[in-house]
């Protein structure tokens, strides 16, 4: 890069929202390593306070956002087209695969294998009925319509902001402009952006704490290489190289990687469904679980356990809503960007179609296979988890019941690596865009900025490998960060409806003329 381009790039970057959150997370990491026990106690007490005293806040936001997404799709707002182009920028398959893999696809794959085990001994499950029915229902609920609704409503808001209103600031604060007005350009806007980037960094830094031990264990079982921190770091470096190469080539590279890992995902599901020999039980249990969730959806969404007889919603439902809210900083921006040319109705309903179909299929096939092993007496999955307290050992035991187990572990490891690489592609693109003071929706960040974020997003997980407490603490920080993120989400939604209503009011007879306000254009001519 020559000097003139370098100076021009430096002027365009927003250094405050790029550097300050990075320094904050770095300081937190150091504090966690120097004062591990004290920091754990402080963060746990804050997290308990928020979950115990403000649990209704998270639950009501979750249900409210879900209902809001349906209103967006089926009201007059659903006709608005996100972008003045004749047909969508990406085909349905490319769009769907990029959207699903850009979210928590790797986490979905991980929890699909074992989540029912976490619920099986909960008193609340026993109160609801048999764990056969309800331990398979709650995973679909906690990874289902409400979590995906967080993505959908914000993707619509950001897509409207970028493709319809043609705003050039790709930031959380800019989406609040219709409500906050000029305050977005002042301290208020900076605070919103700092909270958003901080949550992004904290969530990103800990997401690998879920899968890397499983990947390390799988590769160790297949190759005979001893499990170690160096093996885990090697896995992280491989993921980093894959997503750095793809993000360097822009959206085309991301689309190809997303399609590739989707086919790997289908292969893994077919391997378990057919090779496990429990296809009938797996599918029937899944159908029952979907029925249970639909029939009890409102009750599950609003149950607060006021007497704290089991604290199930505090331990699980509220935790998951907060976890998805933190990830709303990046993924909806990416979905909104790739939804150009689709109407709001198509974006919301298509998002639910691809997001829920991929999520439910994963939980039904992978989760119910291991549930079949338990209920039919083939493998004491619950006993293994109770004895070891280790989900990774439990998953290894489950895979060893499958034919050609080593081949299955290789397929699992490759799929998870591809999922993580694709998720970080999307994160890198969004974080790079966020670093600019202004960036048009059809422009891509400089390759050097993308490379900076690609490396930075991987450094924290590598540093935190050597301190498990720090990983757990930073994850708790990201959950705590969801509290202000929830307020910002509400601001964005109110801003969207205000802005979209004004847009529709300028359109004659309620007809939506692409993305141009024809009435104003006619007057100008």
What is the number of independent domains? 1
Radius of gyration: 23 Å
Number of extended strands: 0
Shape: globular
CATH topology type: Amino acid/polyamine transporter I
User: Unreliable stretches, pLDDT < 50, 5 or more residues?
Assistant: 513-525
Percent strand equals: under 5%
What CATH first level would be assigned?
A: Mainly Alpha
Biggest sheet character: none
CATH architecture: Up-down Bundle
Helical content, roughly? over 70%
Mean pLDDT reading? 86
Structure description:
Keywords: Cell membrane, Membrane, Transmembrane, Transmembrane helix, Transport. The chain is built from 26 helices and no strands. It is mainly α and 525 residues long. It has one domain: Up-down Bundle (Amino acid/polyamine transporter I). Helix 2 crosses helix 13 (187-223) and helix 13 packs across helix 22.
Characteristic terms for this protein:
77% helix; transmembrane; Amino acid/polyamine transporter I; 525 residues; membrane; transmembrane helix; cell membrane; 26 helices; single chain; BCCT family betaine/carnitine transporter
Topology:
Elements: H1 3-12, H2 15-34, H3 36-53, H4 55-74, H5 92-102, H6 105-112, H7 115-120, H8 123-128, H9 131-134, H10 138-142, H11 145-164, H12 177-180, H13 187-223, H14 229-248, H15 251-275, H16 279-295, H17 297-302, H18 312-327, H19 331-338, H20 344-375, H21 381-388, H22 391-399, H23 405-434, H24 447-464, H25 468-505, H26 518-524
Helix pairs in contact: 2-3, 2-13, 2-25, 3-25, 4-11, 4-18, 4-20, 5-15, 5-19, 5-20, 6-20, 6-23, 11-18, 11-19, 11-20, 11-25, 13-14, 13-22, 13-23, 13-24, 13-25, 14-15, 14-23, 14-24, 15-23, 16-20, 18-25, 21-22, 23-24
């Amino acid at each position: 890069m020559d000097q003139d381009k370098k100076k021009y790039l430096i002027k365009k970057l927003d250094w405050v929202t790029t550097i300050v959150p990075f320094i904050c997370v770095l300081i937190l990491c150091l504090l966690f390593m120097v004062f591990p026990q004290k920091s754990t106690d402080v963060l746990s007490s804050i997290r308990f306070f928020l979950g115990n005293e403000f649990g209704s806040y998270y639950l009501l936001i979750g249900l409210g956002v879900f209902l809001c997404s349906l209103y967006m799709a089926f009201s007059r707002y659903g006709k608005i087209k996100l972008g003045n182009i004749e047909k969508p920028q990406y085909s349905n398959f490319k769009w769907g695969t990029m959207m699903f893999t850009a979210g928590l696809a790797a986490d979905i794959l991980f929890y699909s294998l074992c989540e029912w085990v976490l619920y099986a001994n909960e008193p609340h499950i026993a109160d609801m009925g048999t764990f056969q029915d309800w331990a398979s229902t709650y995973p679909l609920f906690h990874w289902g319509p409400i979590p995906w609704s967080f993505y959908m409503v914000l993707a619509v808001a950001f897509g409207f902001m970028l493709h319809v209103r043609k705003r050039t600031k790709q930031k959380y604060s800019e989406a609040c402009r219709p409500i906050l007005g000029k305050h977005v350009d002042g301290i208020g806007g900076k605070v919103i952006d700092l909270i958003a980037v901080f949550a992004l960094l904290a969530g990103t830094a800990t997401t690998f704490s879920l899968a890397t031990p499983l990947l390390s264990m799988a590769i160790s079982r297949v190759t005979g290489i001893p499990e170690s921190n160096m093996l885990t770091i090697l896995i992280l470096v491989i993921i980093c190289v894959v997503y750095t190469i793809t993000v360097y080539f822009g959206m085309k590279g991301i689309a190809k990687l997303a399609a590739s890992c989707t086919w790997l995902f289908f292969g893994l599901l077919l391997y378990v469904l057919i090779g496990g020999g429990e296809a009938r039980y797996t599918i029937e249990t899944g159908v029952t679980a979907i029925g249970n969730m639909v029939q009890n959806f409102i009750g599950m969404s609003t149950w607060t356990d006021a007497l704290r007889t089991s604290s199930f919603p505090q331990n699980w439902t509220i935790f998951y809503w907060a976890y998805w809210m933190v990830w709303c900083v990046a993924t909806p921006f990416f979905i909104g960007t790739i939804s150009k040319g689709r109407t709001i109705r198509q974006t919301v309903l298509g998002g639910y179609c691809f997001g829920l179909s991929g999520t439910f299929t994963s939980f039904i096939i992978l989760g119910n296979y291991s549930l079949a092993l338990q209920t039919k007496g083939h493998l004491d999955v619950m006993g293994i988890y109770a004895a070891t307290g280790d989900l990774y050992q439990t998953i290894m035991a489950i895979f060893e019941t499958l034919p050609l187990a080593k081949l299955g572990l290789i397929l699992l490891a490759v799929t998870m690596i591809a999922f993580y690489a694709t998720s970080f592609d999307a994160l890198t693109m969004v974080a790079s865009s966020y670093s600019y003071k202004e960036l048009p929706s059809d422009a891509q960040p400089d390759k050097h900025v993308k490379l900076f974020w690609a490396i930075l997003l991987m450094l924290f997980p590598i540093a935190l490998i050597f301190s498990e407490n720090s990983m757990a603490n930073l994850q708790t920080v990201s959950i705590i960060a969801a509290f202000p993120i929830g307020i910002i989400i509400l601001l964005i939604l109110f801003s969207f409806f205000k802005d979209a209503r004004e847009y529709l009011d300028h359109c004659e007879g309620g007809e939506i003329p692409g993305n141009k306000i024809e009435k104003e254009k006619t007057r100008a001519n």
